Amino acid sequence: MNARDKKFLTAGIIVALIIAVLAPFLASSNPDGLESTAEKVMPNPETEPVLKSPLPDYTLPALGDSPIGGVISMIFGTILVLALAYGVGAVFRSRKAAGEDGGEE
């Protein structure tokens, strides 16, 4: 990775974290189009999930429905998604490198 790519990646991570910090304060408390439609179409849209979310509705259960809990959960979620994306990228990069090193004639 060259210096330009590192700067671009760092700027993207900083923008994602700024959005994660500001989103709980800027988001509407009214349901969005998808959630509103689901409430109209389905009699009980809040069914039991297969797995319990550790951060339900972008909150921390210990902090309740406070914006601080939303900020912490969104920062945690952003870092988790970035780490997963990095891990998937690393797996594909190692497979590509393994395919280039051997196996092709």
Descriptive report:
The protein is an all-alpha fold and 105 residues long. It has a domain at 1-26 and 61-100. Helices cover 65% and strands 0% of the residues. The protein is built from three helices and no strands. It has helices at 3-26, 33-41, 67-101. Helix 1 runs antiparallel to helix 3 (67-101). The longest helix has 35 residues, at 67-101. The radius of gyration is 20 Å and the shape is extended. It starts with a helix and ends with a helix.
Measured between the Cα atoms of the first and last residue, the distance is 28 Å
- List the uncertain runs: none
Structural class designation: mainly alpha
E-strand count:
0
**Helical fraction:** 55-70%
Rg, alpha carbons:
20 Å
The run of helices and strands is HHH
Overall 3D shape: extended
Task: Count the DSSP helices.
Answer: 3
Overall mean confidence score, pLDDT = 83
Which features does this protein show?
105 residues; mainly alpha; 3 helices; extended; transmembrane helix; cell membrane
